Amino acid sequence: MNKPDPPLSGGSRRRRRGGSGRFGSVFAGLVAVFVLGAVGAGGYWLGYSQGPASLDGRDEESLRVYAEALDVVRENYVDQDSIDPDRQTYAAIEGMLDSLGDEGHTRFLTPEEQDASQEQLSGRYVGVGIQIEEREGEVVVSAPVEGSPAESAGIESGDVIVEVDGEDVRDLDATGVSERVRGPEGSEVSITVLRDSKRLTFDLERLEIDSPVVYRALVPGTDVSHIRYTAFNGGSADALREAVRESLAENSSGLVLDLRGNPGGRVDQAMEVAGMFLNRGEVVYVRREAGGEREPVESRERGEFPEVPLVVLVDGESASSSEIVAGALRDNGRATVVGETTFGTGTVLSEYGLEDGSAILLGVAEWLTPEGDFIRQSGIEPDVKVPLEEDDERLDPRDLEGMTRSEVFEADPQLAEAVRRLEGPEDGSSGRAEG
């Protein structure tokens, strides 16, 4: 096995139908699959390479049993044309990793998935320029990217994707639809949507898309800025920093950092984001090795905004680097965290590239909050719990144009609670908050 690439923190996961109701994960990669979490700052080398010569007796016996089973299948299976050595090998690797019980974290990437992951982490991808999410069992366009082929062709927010290249995709989740839409730059894809019960088909050219990760707007009737941060990919921390500067230049009295639906990304970007609001030397997270040793990881940033009033919004789709930031700002007393318990990633992954271009993402450590709370499977508990009910909506800064303060507060109780916390309600009450 090859030595690992630099560490990955956390990791997103494939979603299944019916996973979280109406407000599913927004795919900030704009029809790209967030298959892996964050490439960490600096190298992490296990200094260990295991080849066949280092296998012990139990390993050798296991391999003999596998080879025996493989021979049985290849010699006797009725449909010989369906036997694919690559698929069999990949399935065996996936089965081995699944047996570790680190669901959603440790996992295998095919060469194609590995290429897509690296492309996504760069902040650019080839596609048609749409963000999609799951709502009530349907894959819906949440927004087209400005200037993209999708926007130019007339695809709109709320369109329900039903076919890709003539194939029905209504039984697929958002990840499956994303995989159908992706393809080589310059190639074409046909997307059929439902809009007000009408079927519309768009023939689009796939192009390289510069994926935006930050959106901002003043909440109507307030001087509070709502900043939505969708992914921790290459250079995204700089985009967030610029958005904060612009908001403060417009005399914003406080910031709502919206990490809802953010599946995470690069650890170095998480360190930068947390460091913007902390003082140098404050602990961002604690790394726990397999042997139990704990290493506090401190901010090295100069803390450009250490005193700006701040509330962080999270939900069950906030994962990986989102949880690092939320935990760091909460435990250091820097921000109030509002919303719902996060996904609970908590695993530091190392990436081991295999010779055919595939890769294994292997959990080699865990990260904890500065106060030592484990995040894996339990998530970040918000300071103020505010659920989204069936008729509520997770608003994006782009949704706020033309809305009134009361309309915003009625539609999105989580955002409303965040704004109230920054404004300081006189009577101490704040809507549907729990605790």
From TrEMBL:
CDD domains: cpPDZ_CPP-like, Peptidase_S41_CPP
PDZ domain sequence ranges: 122-182
One Gene Ontology term from the biological process aspect of the record: signal transduction
SUPFAM superfamilies: ClpP/crotonase, PDZ domain-like
InterPro entries in the cross-refs: ClpP/crotonase-like_dom_sf (IPR029045), PDZ (IPR001478), PDZ_6 (IPR041489), PDZ_sf (IPR036034), Peptidase_S41A (IPR004447), Tail-specific_protease (IPR005151)
Transmembrane segments: 23-46
Keyword Membrane assigned: yes
Organism, scientific name: Rubrobacter radiotolerans
GO cellular component terms, semicolon-separated: outer membrane-bounded periplasmic space
Protein name: S41 family peptidase
Family: Belongs to the peptidase S41A family.
SMART domains in the record: PDZ, TSPc
One Pfam family in the UniProt entry: PDZ_6
PANTHER family named in the record: CARBOXY-TERMINAL PROCESSING PROTEASE CTPA, TAIL-SPECIFIC PROTEASE
NCBIfam families (alphabetical): prc
UniProt entry keywords in alphabetical sequence: Hydrolase, Membrane, Protease, Serine protease, Transmembrane, Transmembrane helix
MF terms (GO), sorted A to Z: endopeptidase activity; serine-type peptidase activity
